[in-house]
Design brief:
The chain is of the alpha/beta class and 268 residues long. It has one domain (3-260): Rossmann fold. The protein has helices at 37-43, 69-82, 95-106, 131-138, 145-152, 155-160, 162-172, 179-190, 219-227, 248-260; strands at residues 3-6, 9-16, 20-25, 47-52, 88-93, 111-117, 205-210, 232-236. Helix 2 packs across helix 3.
């Protein structure tokens, strides 16, 4: 798959499927490999699905500079421009959800529908994780795939699905983020705040969150849903930070129903 010039970087991207454009933005430290083949297959059945490596991750350039959510949002819209995509559905998970919020606020005409997964609004309005989790995530040393796995899935899922966990670990090891870029991403997250701006989001919005999420406590989803006009909220039982397990079909169906307006979304 190709790279394309976006702003000051060469950005790696992939396109899967056909239909209305659907841009999926990955979490902190993640790259295209962190979207499992099953996620890509499900997303591309009805949409032209675009995934990419944020600056400093995967196969995209890593300029030595400060990062911000505005910069990441500019990159995402720059990729849409380069691909001649005027408007798209936007999905962002974790840090990708912060980027998606910034796109919806800064470039409202580019967003058809917005999906915010396992994310928060930053700043003083967010609910932070426990001190134990915060210390682990904010440590100077870069988190390992095992660190992410231990925090992103429930203990029962890790115990009962060793083959999936090992395959996902291997995906995470393909093109790991550098320590420098990891620290830049953390600084960008710490500098983000949208709580007082969320009422300006005009795109129809779905918020989806696992009730067992320890990285982004589930109360953050309620904050987003109350501050974004008309937002729909789905809270998932027995789901941690990785939304798509243990019941990927439930999540994909909920997202597809929202994007195609087949049925009214109800909390689960």
């Amino acid at each position: 798959m190709p790279k394309i010039k976006v702003n000051d970087i060469n950005m790696y991207y992939e396109i899967h499927g056909e239909g209305f454009p659907y841009v999926m933005i990955m979490a902190m430290a993640g790259d295209v490999n962190w979207w499992t083949p099953e996620i890509i297959e499900a997303s591309s059945q009805n949409f032209k699905t675009i995934i990419f490596d944020n600056r400093g991750t995967g196969q995209t350039d890593e300029p030595a500079m400060g990062y911000s959510m505005k910069l990441f949002a500019d990159d995402t819209v720059g990729l849409m421009d380069a691909l001649n995509i005027e408007k798209a559905h936007i999905l962002g998970v974790c840090m990708g959800g912060l980027i998606a919020q910034e796109i919806a606020l800064t470039y409202p005409d580019r967003v058809e529908r917005l999906i915010l997964g396992c994310t928060h609004c930053g700043g003083s309005k967010q609910i932070p994780p426990s001190n134990k989790i915060m210390r682990k995530m904010m440590a100077p040393k870069k988190m390992t795939p095992d660190d992410f796995i231990s925090l992103s899935f429930t203990e029962d899922f890790i115990k009962d699905n060793p083959d999936f966990i090992e395959s996902y670990r291997q995906l995470m090891l393909k093109t790991p983020i550098s320590s420098d870029s990891f620290q830049r991403q953390k600084q960008a997250i710490m500098g983000f705040s949208s709580g007082m701006r969320l009422k300006k989001i005009k795109a129809p919005t779905l918020i989806i969150h696992g009730k067992e999420d320890v990285i982004v406590p589930p109360g953050n989803a309620e904050i987003l849903s109350k501050r974004i006009p008309g937002a729909k909220l789905i809270m998932l039982d027995n789901v941690a930070h990785f939304l798509f397990q243990p019941n990927p079909e439930r999540v994909h169906n909920a997202i597809n129903n929202f994007l195609t307006e087949k049925i009214e979304i109800e909390a689960q």
